[in-house]
Each structure stands twice: as structure tokens, then as C-alpha cells.
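Whiteboard transcription, Tuesday session. T.W. wrote the C-alpha cells on the left side:
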């Protein structure tokens, strides 16, 4: 069965965004940091082992392992992302976990409500889409400026879709 042009045009997204957390240190900077800190830990660790204070050398190795582990966890959590689309027929939120698992939430755009919790000094604390007895939080990992721009754009897209009855 063929779709008419009216049906296919209503499926075109009015708004589409991919949200992901910001990482201030790129992969290259991460490698440089690890090489420098590894060299420093190794040199000082060997100095203390050579002077007979071997437990201190062990702790330099432990420090380096903990630093590497912390950055590994940080970059793993940076793989989380959300895809948000708004069309005339639906609001879709696809959440991808660092493990790759995906959860999808669908809302009717005419029943969907966008709730933004604000603090006077901090700005947006949380953003949620809810409707028809379901709710999901979006953009929890975004920085305050990105939350503001996303909220403004998403609210405008939702209003645009609701006006086109």
C-alpha cells in the first residue's frame, strides 16, 4: 500500500536533536596526560624503590592505575546519548546507555507536556516529557547552557506541532 504525500509530510520531523555529554579533554589530550603522569609516577616510583622505600613506589603505581581507571569510567559514561525527535504524529526519545542498550519512549505530541524545573541562580535543574501516564527525563547530563538552548528549541517545536491542527 502506498502512502499519500500528506501522510509522509506529517512524518517528517519538525525537530530532531542528538544529546550527548561534553568532554573537555579529547582522546589525544587523554593520551598525553597518561604518558606524562605515567612517566612521572614511574620515575619517582623507581627512585623510592632504589632508595629502599619500596612501599612508596607501589603507591605511585596504584595512583597511576586509579587515574587511568577514573578516566576510563569517565569516557565510558560519555558514550551515553539521547535522540529526540518531534513530528506531527509523535514525540520520540531514544536513550542509549554506555553499554549500547537502547530504550525508546513515544508520546502523542498533542498530549505531551514538557516540564522544566528551574532554580533562580543555577538555571534548569531537570527537563521531563510526560503524557498519557508516562514520563521520561531528558538531557540530565547536559551543562546549563545546553539545557537552556535545548529547552527553548524543544518547547518551540512542540508548540509548532500543536498549532498545526
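and on the right, the sequence the group agreed on:
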Amino acid at each position: 500500500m502506498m502512502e499519500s504525500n500528506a501522510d509522509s509530510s506529517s512524518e517528517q520531523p519538525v525537530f530532531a536533536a542528538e544529546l550527548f555529554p561534553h568532554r573537555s579533554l579529547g582522546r589525544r589530550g587523554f593520551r598525553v596526560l597518561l604518558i606524562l603522569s605515567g612517566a612521572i609516577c614511574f620515575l619517582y616510583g623507581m627512585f623510592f624503590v632504589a632508595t629502599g622505600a619500596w612501599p612508596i613506589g607501589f603507591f605511585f603505581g596504584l595512583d597511576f592505575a586509579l587515574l587511568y581507571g577514573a578516566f576510563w569510567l569517565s569516557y565510558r559514561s560519555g558514550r551515553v546519548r539521547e535522540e529526540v525527535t518531534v513530528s506531527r504524529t509523535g514525540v520520540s526519545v531514544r536513550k542509549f546507555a554506555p553499554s549500547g542498550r537502547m530504550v525508546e519512549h513515544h508520546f502523542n505530541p498533542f498530549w505531551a507536556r514538557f516540564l522544566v524545573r528551574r532554580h533562580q541562580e543555577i538555571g534548569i535543574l531537570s527537563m521531563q516529557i510526560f503524557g498519557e501516564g508516562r514520563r521520561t527525563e531528558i538531557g540530565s547530563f547536559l551543562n546549563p547552557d545546553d539545557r537552556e538552548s535545548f529547552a527553548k528549541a524543544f518547547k518551540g517545536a512542540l508548540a509548532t506541532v500543536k498549532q498545526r491542527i
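Someone added at the bottom: The two ends are 25 Å apart (CA to CA).
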